[in-house]
Amino acid sequence: MTADKARIARQFIEAIPHAKALGMRIEHVGDGEAIIAMDYDPRFIGDPATGVIHGGAVSALMDTASGAAVMSHPVAPAITATIDLRIDYMRPATPGRRIIARAECYEMTRTVAFVRVTATDEGGARPFATAAGAFTVERGPADSGDKGDRRAEPAGTPA
Amino acid sequence: MSRPRPEPVQVIKQRRDSALRALTQGIPYVSFLGISFDRRGDELTAVLRFDEKLIGNPFLPAIHGGVTSAFLETAAIVELSWSILWEEMEHGGLDPKAVDAANLPQLPKTIDFTVDYLRPGLPRDAYARARLNRSGRRYASVHVEAWQDNRSRLFAQATGHFLMPEKTPGGHG
Q: Which residues of chain A lie closer than 8 angstroms to B64, CB-CB?
């Protein structure tokens, strides 16, 4: 059951065009946790003077990892969408290094999933950014039904 | 006493537009996402042209939340930098010709950024305007609103705090 959720979450993330465009790679997903990495790429630079990656690319990575964590939660919803996400940037990411986002869905109510996520550059001891977010919980067709959320049910069905 | 003749309008426009271009086109990630800026006087509107690679949910389809966040953060940072640049260009004697890709003003740094996702981002162009709620010597607080078809139906809004670039003596800080 849980393995299925992890597989569905993985398939879903791999099908996201923007995740592909940023070259995101799933390192781990399951039981309400997700680790997703993104290589350094000069196209994603936000400050040409320093070569530091744009905060927006980091938020995309953290948002994706958060969504994956929610979808892989043991009592996961079929559908989830970001309600809000607050990101704190403690220091710039080190130019040239891969960035790794680690997300944990630490609480799931009937209607809302709460997520914490960090971003660390490879080799870094401490995260350079952290974020906290709230996500919608839709329990699929059996529940109240689709309300037009940003993420629909994954197309991949268990074989 | 007669006032000096105002500068010809095309000279002013050319100066302001080239400074804005230098500011925005020098940021690789802004070009990668396909964000451009419309200018009316000092007012900027950020424009995100829709592209398949911005999709975060292929099944709806809808724009990725991270793209929305990046778009809003870009609109906020550019608005903040533009306000500094405008002030120096119009009143501070900064030569706009000195503002080129190799010699850009230092950008403000994001301290935190909070995004409210109000509606799904539809697969079409999006617009954003930022408002400086406070712009101090060291810190700034900026609010951003983004919409698609209707200005009054926001699909996302955000508030961010930024660390202002330090003024360098003689240069544009």
A: 16, 18-19, 60, 63-64
A15 neighbors A9 (Cβ within 8 angstroms) = no
Architecture of domain A2-136: Roll (3.10)
If you measure CA to CA, which chain B residue comes closest to A80? B57
Quick one: DSSP state of residue B98? Answer: G
Q: Measured between beta carbons, which residues in chain A are less than 8 angstroms from residue B165?
A: none
Between chains, do A62 and B113 touch, taking CB under 8 Å as contact? no
Position B101 confidence tier, pLDDT thresholds 50, 70, 90: low
Contacts of A80 (CB under 8 A, 6+ apart): A67, A70, A71, A113, A135, A136, A137, A138, A149, A151
% of chain B surpassing 90 pLDDT: 62
Q: Name all domains of chain B by residue range, CATH numbers in brackets.
A: 9-163 (3.10.129.10)
- Confidence check: pLDDT of A57 > 90: yes
Q: Which residue has the tokens 């992890």?
A: A6
Q: How far apart are CA A49 and CA A45, in angstroms?
A: 10
Domain boundaries, chain A: 2-136
pLDDT in tens, B143-166: 999 999 999 999 999 999 999 988
3 state SS of A53: strand
> Which of A45, A60, A89 has the CB atom closest to B64's CB atom?
A60
B52 contacts on A by Cβ (under 8 Å)? 17
Phi/psi zone of residue A32: left (φ > 0), alpha (ψ -120 to 50 degrees), beta? left
